[in-house]
Amino acid sequence: MSSLSFPAGPPSTQTLTIPILADNVDEALETLEIRIANVEGGAGAISVMSLRQTIDIIDDDIPVANFAAPSQSGFESNGAPSLLITLDPISSRDVVVNFDMTPGSATYSQDYAGAETGTVLFPPFTNEAFIGPFFVYPDGLAESLETVEFNLTGTTPNGETTIVQPDQLVYNILDYEPFEWTGAAGIGKNSDNAGWIDATLATCLL
């Protein structure tokens, strides 16, 4: 609570200073009401209703969504990879991120599947969310690296502001065929072989 003092004499002006603090959180419009009461001195009646003022606090924090990394890799046997999106700064309201998925060198329904367009929801005060559904399939073929591209097309806070922050992630589908001729024992990928046994034939004379 603060007080103002007006000296006797001709009309004068006094200034009331109110600090507004930054909080680094996306928010809806906030208001502050200033009310002057308990007026003392002066001649005649002073209307308290005429001594009210509402101040609008306009938010200046814009949430921006980005992929956690520009690229991500996983074997085609992974099933359902997790594609992380981050939000900075956080928001006090729902933030919806729009995305689309397009084939690079991979083939839809043969190598992968999922929503070609969709949205991801950041609930209030959260900074991580995942794109989905997205699935990759083992196809039984020996093949080179295949790719799928994901694009963020914009973020929409559930309020008066819409911002567009383009960003892209390339998902690399790594080939995985467990019976390719790549392991040291002749079958299986090196990652499938937990250990090796070196057996030596010895001649036993009786």
In short:
The chain has 206 residues and is mainly β. It has no helices and twelve strands.
Please characterize this protein's 3D structure.
This protein is mainly beta. Helices cover 0% and strands 35% of the residues. It contains no helices and twelve strands. It has strands spanning 30-35, 52-57, 64-67, 71-75, 83-88, 95-103, 112-114, 117-122, 128-131, 134-136, 146-157, 167-174. The strands form four sheets. A five-stranded mixed beta sheet has the order 4-12-11-6-8, with no helix packed on it.
SSE inventory with pairings:
Blueprint: E1 30-35, E2 52-57, E3 64-67, E4 71-75, E5 83-88, E6 95-103, E7 112-114, E8 117-122, E9 128-131, E10 134-136, E11 146-157, E12 167-174
Parallel strand pairs: 4-12
Antiparallel strand pairs: 1-2, 3-5, 5-9, 6-8, 6-11, 7-10, 11-12
Rg over CA atoms: 32 Å
- Label the overall shape: rod-shaped
Give the number of DSSP strands: 12
What is the overall pLDDT average? 78
With strands numbered from the N-terminus, the spatial order across the biggest sheet is: 4-12-11-6-8
User: Structural class from helices and strands?
Assistant: mainly beta
Distance between the termini: 107 Å
Tally of separate helices: 0
What is the strand content?
25-35%
> What summary fits the major beta sheet?
5 strands, mixed
Listing every helix as H and every strand as E from the N terminus to the C terminus, the arrangement reads EEEEEEEEEEEE
Helix content: under 10%
Identify low-pLDDT runs.
none
Kindly list the characteristics that best describe this protein.
35% strand, 206 residues, mainly beta, rod-shaped, 12 strands, five-stranded mixed β-sheet
